Amino acid sequence: MIITPKELHDRKGEFTIVDVRSEKQINEFPMDDLETIIFNGGSIPNMKGSKVLVCQFGIVTEGMILENKLDDTFSLLGGAQAWIEFQSKNEDLSRWSRQTILPEVGMDGQKKLLNATVAIVGMGGLGCPAAQSLIAAGVGKLILIDGDIVELSNLHRQPLYGVNDLNRLKVEVAKERLEQLNNKAVIVPIDKYFNEENGMSFIQDANVIIDATDNIQARQLIDRFSKDANVPMIYGGLFRYEGQVAVLNVNGSPGYCELFPEPPSGGDSCADAGVLGMVPGILGNIQALEAVKLIIGITPNLVGKLLFYDGMNHITQTIEL
Amino acid sequence: MIKIKVKCFSQVKYALGIDNLNLEFESGTSTSQLEKFIRRKANGELDGIPLRIALNQKYIPDETELQDGDEVAFIPPVQGG
């Protein structure tokens, strides 16, 4: 069983709190406002009443409870790290404990995500999985831009929508579903197509733009506004079982027009060429992963590179731009 | 003679029906000559589709002389999303 820092704060009189951390961790990261029993190894003392075990990140204690089949014992989600954060800012970040434990993310990275804004242009096959993953990761604000409505042929690859949503605006349905995943995030639905007149106003305050469109003209326009506003663009494109992702326009790095200076005279959309829903699911998630890395500042990343993914034989290749 | 490996992506792969080609050319063959060869082999299916060229996993200007053992990828823009 787990308990969050906020729950522990509200109910701390009900528990005996056992700190299982090393002396070094206890001294380095003291848990103020919490009376604890220090546990120095061996078997967990047999105490009456409910207990909360605390380790540094909340992982060790979950294992101890399972391994020792401890009754009436809780693990503090996110551990001492999440408690200290909660005490100092009154902000419970423990739901992200599985990613804040990563040294590259940590609490500082999580706060960057919570303060970040991502604009997603196109809420189709790439936009749906990208939005789901970004909101689950804790991105604070999403701007969703798409003037389209939900059609039956969308459902196999756009998992935010269901049969009861047919003919509704995609961005409105997406907002409802995404708020169920994180009701503290701000979702701004824009039921318009991205164009020359309105595009800049939608992306200029974002930290990152996800290009999840389905046509090259829109990609060129996003590229231009991305350069003008100095907001990086994460390009994603699909063809049958294959996809491409690149992180563009980061401090003067190549953009879409450097990647493909010459537009094709024709070309296949998903409707023309066909697509299995899992392929945009994978590619949209790679775009979301790159967005998170860019916001936090994690390297290496796909800045100045074009990634290919082939879902038929699961080969990836990276080309330097 | 030089040996060249060609990696085919997206429309190029479907036009030629193959992922990779191992080819032999005269010394001095350039990337644009190789592109013409690939387009001829595609029987018009790549008409109207611009191709970017990567040599040994790096984008290059179109006209570069190929060396023995080079790997060349032809990369078309893709629309879907």
Structure description:
The complex is a heterodimer of chains A (321) and B (81). Chain A has 321 residues and is an alpha/beta fold. Chain A has 2 domains: 2-100, Oxidized Rhodanese, domain 1 (3-Layer(aba) Sandwich), CATH 3.40.250.10; 111-320, NAD(P)-binding Rossmann-like Domain (Rossmann fold, 3-Layer(aba) Sandwich), CATH 3.40.50. Chain A is 36% helix and 20% strand. In chain A, helix 7 (127-137) packs across helix 13. Chain A starts with a strand and ends with a strand. The model of chain A has no long low-confidence stretch (mean pLDDT 93). Chain B has a single domain, classed as Beta-grasp domain (Ubiquitin-like (UB roll), Roll). Helices cover 22% and strands 27% of the residues of chain B. Chain B has helices spanning 10-16, 31-41, and strands at 2-8, 20-25, 52-55, 71-75. Chain B has a 4-stranded mixed β-sheet with strand order 2-1-4-3. The longest helix of chain B has 11 residues, at 31-41. Chain B starts with a strand and ends in a 6-residue tail after the last strand.
What structural class do you assign from the helix and strand content of chain B? alpha+beta
Broad CATH class of chain B: Alpha Beta
Task: Give the DSSP E fraction of chain B (strand runs of 2 or more residues).
Answer: 25-35%
Helix/strand order of chain B: EHEHEE
- Category by helix and strand content of chain A: alpha/beta
Describe the sheet with the most strands of chain B. Answer: 4 strands, mixed
The proportion of strand residues of chain A reads 15-25%
The CATH superfamily name of chain B is Beta-grasp domain
* Integer average pLDDT of chain A: 93
CATH 4th-level superfamily of the largest domain in chain A: NAD(P)-binding Rossmann-like Domain
Number of domains of chain A: 2
CATH architecture descriptor of chain B:
Roll
- End-to-end distance of chain A, in Å? 49 Å
Cα-atom radius of gyration of chain A: 23 Å
N→C terminal distance of chain B = 42 Å
Q: What CATH architecture of the largest domain in chain A do you see?
A: 3-Layer(aba) Sandwich
How many domains of chain B? The number is: 1
